[in-house]
Design a protein that fits this description.
heterodimer, A: 115 residues, mainly beta, 6-stranded mixed beta sheet, 4-stranded antiparallel beta sheet, 0% helix, B: 112 residues, 7-stranded mixed beta sheet, 11 strands
Chain lengths: 115, 112
C-alpha cells in the first residue's frame, strides 16, 4: 500500500524568505504525486502534480516541486513567500493510473509566515 | 458557479442521531469521493464511486452509507452518530484516469 510522510508538522518562515516543504512517498509503481493547499475553513486546492516527464514541475501561486525517484521525494518550494501563503500543505500519492483509485495524503505541514 | 458543493457546511447533533451530508459536482466528472479529516488534519479516504458504482470502500463502520443517485451526486448518510464521528467530511470529484481531485469546502460535523 502507498504512504506519504511529511516530516515537518509546523514550519515558520519569514515573509520574503524561501520555502521548502518536504515529502517522501512509498509506492511500488510509478507514482502520481500531488501537492494541495488548504486555507483555514476551506477545501483543498491543487498546487501542482507530477505524472511523468520533467521532474521539476511548476504550479500555481509561484510554487514548484521536484520529483527525485532515488530519494522517493517530492519537495515543494517557493523562492519568496507571502503572508497569504500561510496555510496547511498536503502531499499526496495516487494509486492506479493517474491516481484515479484515490489519493493517500500525508499528515500535512502547517506553514506559519512571520512578518 | 461552485464546482463541488456540499451541504450543510456545519452540522451539530446529539449522539445516536442520524444525519446526511449531500454533495453535488457540476464538472462532468465520473468519479466522486468522501474523505474524512480528523482534528489533527489527517485526511483519509472513505468511499469512492465511479458512475454510480462503489469502487473504494475503506474500513469504515457500517453506520456510514454512501449513496450515488447519479454521477453528479454522492451523499453520505450516518446512522447512530458517535462522538468519534466528529470531523470535517470532504467530498471530491475527479475524471477517471486523470487523478486530480477537486474538493468541496467541507462539512464540519460535531457530535455532542
Amino acid at each position: 500500500a502507498q504512504s506519504v510522510t511529511q516530516p515537518d508538522i509546523h514550519i515558520t518562515v519569514s515573509e520574503g524568505a524561501s520555502l521548502e516543504l518536504r515529502c517522501n512517498y512509498s509506492y511500488g509503481a510509478t507514482p502520481y504525486l500531488f501537492w494541495y493547499v488548504q486555507s483555514p475553513g476551506q477545501g483543498l486546492q491543487l498546487l501542482l502534480k507530477y505524472f511523468s516527464g520533467d521532474t521539476l514541475v511548476q504550479g500555481i501561486k509561484g510554487f514548484e516541486a521536484e520529483f527525485k525517484r532515488s530519494q522517493s521525494s517530492f519537495n515543494l518550494r517557493k523562492p519568496s513567500v507571502h503572508w497569504s501563503d500561510a496555510a496547511e500543505y498536503f502531499c499526496a500519492v495516487g494509486a492506479g493510473v493517474g491516481g484515479a483509485d484515490g489519493l493517500t495524503f500525508g499528515k500535512g505541514t502547517h506553514l506559519i509566515i512571520q512578518p | 458557479d461552485t464546482a463541488v458543493s456540499q451541504t450543510p457546511k456545519y452540522l451539530v447533533t446529539q449522539m445516536g442521531n442520524d444525519k446526511s451530508i449531500k454533495c453535488e459536482q457540476n464538472l462532468g466528472h465520473d468519479t466522486m469521493y468522501w474523505y474524512k479529516q480528523d482534528s489533527k488534519k489527517f485526511l483519509k479516504i472513505m468511499f469512492s464511486y465511479n458512475n454510480k458504482e462503489l469502487i473504494i470502500n475503506e474500513t469504515v463502520p457500517n453506520r456510514f452509507s454512501p449513496k450515488s443517485p447519479d454521477k453528479a451526486h454522492l451523499n453520505l448518510h450516518i446512522n447512530s452518530l458517535e462522538l468519534g464521528d466528529s470531523a470535517v467530511y470532504f467530498c471530491a470529484s475527479s475524471q477517471q484516469g486523470v487523478g486530480e481531485l477537486f474538493f468541496g469546502e467541507g462539512s464540519r460535523l460535531t457530535v455532542l
